[in-house]
Amino acid sequence: MASKNKTLVPAEDYLSAGVHIGTKFKTKDMKPFIYKVNPKGLSILNVQKIDERLAYASKFISKYNPKDILVIGRRENSWKAVKAFAETIGAKYYSGRYPAGVMTNPELKNFIEPKLVIVSDPWIDKNAITDAVKKGITVVALCDSNNTLNNVDLAIPCNNKGSKSLALIFWILTNEYLKINKKSTKGTSLKVEDFE
């Protein structure tokens, strides 16, 4: 669903979902993605860079078989979006607390060996990233202005705290995954609201 300015969705959709609204804190890692700081002290992320990263990340994620993807979101605002993305494409997911050792301890009944881990926040989901790093698993992370990129292979800059922002990001990733893998020419039949 490309608009006239060739973004994945119209810029207004990004703005109305608050995808560009960062935090009052900003890290050196995220500085290249910050457009400005507003009068309230909030970092404003560059919408064009968000869109470019989403397009790149979509192509990257689409190279993986859904069974080899693990999506994680500990923060409650991400649960519905994480679940909708994973169930629609056929990936594994944890919404809520990530069970330690799931990727590193073959003795566990729920042991899994993903090839790609997607986290909704590298700070909150740091235990999953630690396990992924131990096993050499690639990590894609949704990163806000306050995140660092330690052990993150591919960052998608965005507001990773708001439920509307997370819904739109995961809805776009779902649509692009389905289109790129020719599972649908129109993407998912789910609406953004179904991810919120």
Notes on the structure:
- The chain has one domain: Glucose-6-phosphate isomerase like protein, domain 1 (Rossmann fold, 3-Layer(aba) Sandwich), CATH 3.40.50.
- The model has no long low-confidence stretch (mean pLDDT 93).
- The chain is an alpha/beta fold.
- Helix content is 31%, strand content 15%.
- The strands form two sheets. It has a five-stranded parallel sheet with strand order 4-3-5-6-7, sandwiched between helices.
- Helix 2 (47-61) packs across helix 5 (163-180) and helix 3 (79-89) runs parallel beside helix 5 (163-180).
- The chain is built from five helices and seven strands.
- Strand 1 (34-37) and strand 2 form a beta hairpin.
Note the quaternary state here: single chain
The structure class reads: alpha/beta
State the CATH architecture.
3-Layer(aba) Sandwich
Q: What's the number of helices?
A: 5
Number of strands: 7
Q: What is the CATH T-level topology?
A: Rossmann fold
Strand percent estimate? 15-25%
Protein topology:
Layout: H1 11-17, E1 34-37, E2 43-45, H2 47-61, E3 69-73, H3 79-89, E4 92-95, E5 116-119, H4 126-134, E6 138-143, E7 154-157, H5 163-180
Can I get a quick summary?
With 196 residues, this protein is of the alpha/beta class. It is built from five helices and seven strands.
List keywords for this structure.
two-stranded antiparallel ribbon, 196 residues, globular, alpha/beta, Rossmann fold, 5-stranded parallel beta sheet
